[in-house]
Structure formats: C-alpha cells, structure tokens
Write a structure and sequence with these properties.
It is built from 11 helices and 8 strands. The chain is α/β, with parallel strands linked by helices. The longest helix has 30 residues.
C-alpha cells in the first residue's frame, strides 16, 4: 500500500505519522508546494519520501489531499484527471458542497471519497504534526453514495486504523453543521482576541490576569488566516446565518446587563448549561 499525501502540514503530516506508526501503509509519499515543508516532514518521519505531484500520483494506490480548501477546488479535478480506475482519492477539507460541485459528472467521480476528519490544533506546518491527532475524533464521510464501494471501504479502513469514529452526511448538511460547531467558534475566538488586544492598549497589565480559562477560550485565535479565510469564503452563507444568531444572543446578554435583569440572566446561563448533554 503506497499512500500519497498532498500537503504535509499539521493535517497531512499527522496522518502520515499515524499511518507509518500503525503499519497501514508500506510507503508514505509526500507532496507539498513548499520544498522546506517537504524536507522537514521527511526529517521528522512524517513521510518516507518526497516526490513531484505527477510522479506521486502515478505511484500511489491511495492519494490523500490535505491542501487548503481553496487549493482543493483546482487540485481535486486535476488529480482525478490523472488517476486510473484502481486508485482512490480522498480529501480532508473542512468544506464540501462547493468542492463536490466542482467534480460533478467527472468520469472518475466514483474513485473519490469526500472526508472531513474533525481534528486539528491552532498550530500549522509539519512541525505541529501529532501522531495521536485523530485518535477518538469524528470523521465525516460526505455524499458516500457517489463513491465506489471499494474506494469507500479503503477510506473507511484508513480512518478506522488511526482511531477515528465514522459518520456520514450530505454535503450541504455537513457545511451547515460545521458552521455551527467549528467555524463560528473560530470567528468568536478571533473577535475575543481583538477585543482584549484593543483594551490592552490602554491597560498594559491586563494579560497578568489571563488564566487557563481565557487561554482556552482564545486559543482558536492563534489559527492561521490562510487556513480560515478560504473556509469562510466557501461556507459564507452558512457562517453568516450562524453569526447572526450568535450576535443576537450576545445582544440579549447586553440588554439584560443594561436592565440589571440578573434573574433572567441566571435562567439564560442555566439554559446554556444544557450543552452538557452534547459535550462532556
């Protein structure tokens, strides 16, 4: 089993490290637009060898696309153009609807499996890779009815081998739900960071009080703009819908503070505590 990973940063590099460790692949081939990233990935043992994109596609049994979502729009169709019918292509992007539309009707559409492993950190690049990044996390397989059974089975075997729990969704459903559970969290993190940084201009000691609670809440603000702007661009409509609701909730809290209505505020917090049914 030869696995090619296109994009050897946090996501692709962590996958390569896990697949090397568990023996799923006999060889991990790395492809990256940055020769420095490729060499770092090889030195860190995330991949066995680096190749050009064309050479890797000719060599690999399984091709995993771990590039940013804007790059995937061009990358996926060109990869499908070059594969044979015994090869499988899997992408790991955070948005799906627009990407899947790009290859609608492609002759090799059934060799492609759309996947979103719900895992990551606020860091990027091959140096941030972690062998256990995917352990016990959810992987969403999208529009699986359009994938050939053997291609889907191979993708499932790969994700199961690194300890992921599998679920399936349609592309539109996936993008909407990700706006709620992931994309809005990052926008909130960016907004909180900007709020505190603005205040810190006048109160230089504010970060002396920053506890683990603040660090946890603002952690996502460290995430790369080059990763998240393409996600917000592709999932704009769903993110706007969720953002409007979030702003409305914040406005209600503000109104309760103005009115000094702490009884209602108390009830709002109790209602929010119901999230414990979903999150441990």
């Amino acid at each position: 089993m030869k696995v090619c990973i296109v994009g050897v940063g946090l996501i692709g590099g962590s996958l390569g490290l896990a697949l090397k460790s568990n023996g799923f692949a006999d060889q991990i081939i790395g492809v990256d637009s940055s020769s420095r990233h490729l060499e770092t990935a090889r030195q860190l043992g995330l991949i066995d060898i680096g190749m050009s994109e064309d050479e890797a596609i000719k060599t690999a049994d399984l091709i995993v696309l771990a590039a940013p979502v804007d790059a995937l729009l061009n990358l996926l169709p060109t990869v499908l153009d070059r594969i044979s019918h015994h090869q499988t292509v899997v992408d790991l992007g955070s948005t799906k609807e627009l990407l899947i539309q790009q290859i609608d009707g492609h002759a090799n559409r059934d060799r492609y499996v759309a996947a979103h492993p719900m895992a990551g950190t606020e860091y990027s690049g091959p140096s941030a890779a972690k062998e256990d990044l995917y352990q016990d996390k959810i992987c969403v397989l999208v529009d699986t009815h359009q994938s050939a059974k053997d291609a889907l089975d191979l993708a499932k075997q790969m994700f199961s081998s690194i300890g992921m729990k599998l679920t399936e969704m349609g592309s539109s459903e996936h993008d909407l739900h990700c706006a709620y559970v992931s994309h809005i969290s990052h926008i909130a993190g960016f907004g909180l960071a900007l709020t505190v940084l603005e205040k810190e201009k006048n109160e230089a000691r504010i970060f002396e009080l920053a506890s683990s609670g603040f660090s946890s809440t603002a952690r996502l603000a460290k995430s790369s703009a080059s990763t998240w702007i393409p996600i917000f661009r592709q999932n704009r409509d769903h993110v706007l819908d969720v953002l409007d609701e979030h702003i409305e909730q914040l406005s209600r809290f503000r109104s309760l503070l103005i009115k000094k209505d702490f009884d209602t505020f108390y009830k709002k917090i109790e209602a929010a505590n119901e999230i414990k049914r979903i999150i441990d």
